[in-house]
Design goal:
This protein is of the alpha/beta class and about 200 residues long. It contains seven helices and ten strands.
Length: about 200
């Protein structure tokens, strides 16, 4: 839990991270009797704590997925608080974010797709139907121009039943003219491998 000490003598300890930034009254709400930072302020503090553009993008995506905030609300917050320290550091991640990501791994895959491979921003988690209107599936990422879908296969996909379902689903995507690119967790650290596969 991150605590805003607002100049108090609270110290960081196991399970508690102390922020020395002052939180003004208009950025505070009371939830169940506990003073809390508003969602955009809490997200902003988390973003400036994180060190990389991609890590920040994942945090924005997941805040939007809950949904405790949105890209529009966060953009408005950064404009209103433009004099705050670190706003310029945080803003590039906002431009890379997508409100339709469903997991951190999808975000990492999307950034490899978009930034490293240079494929541009894919459509995230949208329904695909064939020409007769039959539902085909919801891929993690899709590029309709290239006719490619991207899927992250995490641990849950190792189950025999799930694997059989995934194979059938890949066949359904191919049947409507979409090529499928799958990645697994350890490959996220090998961006060049994912780029080559794309």
């Amino acid at each position: 839990v991150t605590l805003a000490a607002n100049g108090g003598r609270v110290r960081t300890r196991d399970g508690v991270l102390v922020s020395r930034f002052t939180v003004p009254p208009d950025e505070v709400i009371v939830v169940n009797g506990i003073r809390c930072a508003r969602a955009e302020r809490a997200l902003f503090d988390e973003l400036r704590r994180l060190r990389g553009r991609r890590e920040r993008t994942v945090a924005i995506d997941m805040a939007c997925a809950l949904p405790i905030s949105s890209i529009v609300r966060m953009d408005r917050y950064l404009r209103i608080r433009r004099w705050y320290r670190d706003v310029r550091t945080v803003r590039p991640s906002l431009h890379l974010a997508d409100e339709h990501s469903w997991s951190p791994q999808e975000c990492w895959f999307r950034m490899i797709w978009e930034v490293d491979a240079g494929w541009g921003h894919p459509i995230c988690n949208r329904e695909v139907h064939d020409l007769d209107g039959r539902f085909v599936g919801i891929p993690d990422l899709i590029d309709p121009r290239r006719a490619v879908v991207g899927e992250f296969s995490g641990e849950l996909h190792r189950d025999k039943e799930q694997h059989a379902s995934d194979v059938a689903r890949a066949a359904d995507f191919r049947a409507v003219g979409l090529e499928i690119v799958e990645v697994v967790g350890r490959e996220m650290r090998q961006r060049d491998v994912v780029v080559q596969r794309l």
